[in-house]
Design goal:
The chain has 123 residues and is mainly alpha-helical. Helices cover 72% and strands 3% of the residues. Among the domains are: 35 residues, no CATH class; 41 residues. The chain has a two-stranded antiparallel ribbon with strand order 1-2.
Length: 123
């Protein structure tokens, strides 16, 4: 039994790594980044930022680095509980996620109760 648990646990590690890489790539797939999008939105309203300011912000947050360096920086914070900084909300990501986690658990729990309430009588 111990060998089975160990094998399953060791099999979980590559899966976790692959899922984190796919999630990171999906986040990075859209063209541009937060600052180029912000610059475009500000340009539409007529209060745009210059390109030099955007480049400085990209350097500050490491968005000018290659993808593998960005990934390693992103994933290295997880064991420390550092999920990064939300540029949109201008605060750490972890409290934002935890705040919304309660609603997610509530909806999931209610869905489970509803599903069991319908499935058990049906058989």
């Amino acid at each position: 039994m111990l060998a089975y648990i160990l094998r399953r646990t060791l099999g979980m590690i590559p899966t976790l790594i692959i899922v984190s890489i796919v999630a990171f790539l999906i986040i990075q797939l859209p063209p541009g980044d937060f600052f180029t999008t912000l610059q475009a939105q500000l340009a539409e309203t007529g209060s745009g930022q210059d390109t030099e300011t955007v480049k400085k912000m990209q350097e500050r947050y490491g968005l000018d680095k290659p993808l593998h360096v960005q990934y390693l920086k992103w994933v290295s914070g997880f064991p420390r509980g550092d999920f990064g900084w939300s540029l949109e909300w201008n605060s750490p990501v972890l409290p934002i996620v935890l705040k919304r986690m309660a609603y997610t658990v509530l909806v999931g729990g209610l869905s489970l109760l509803f599903m069991m309430g319908v499935a058990i009588p049906i058989g």
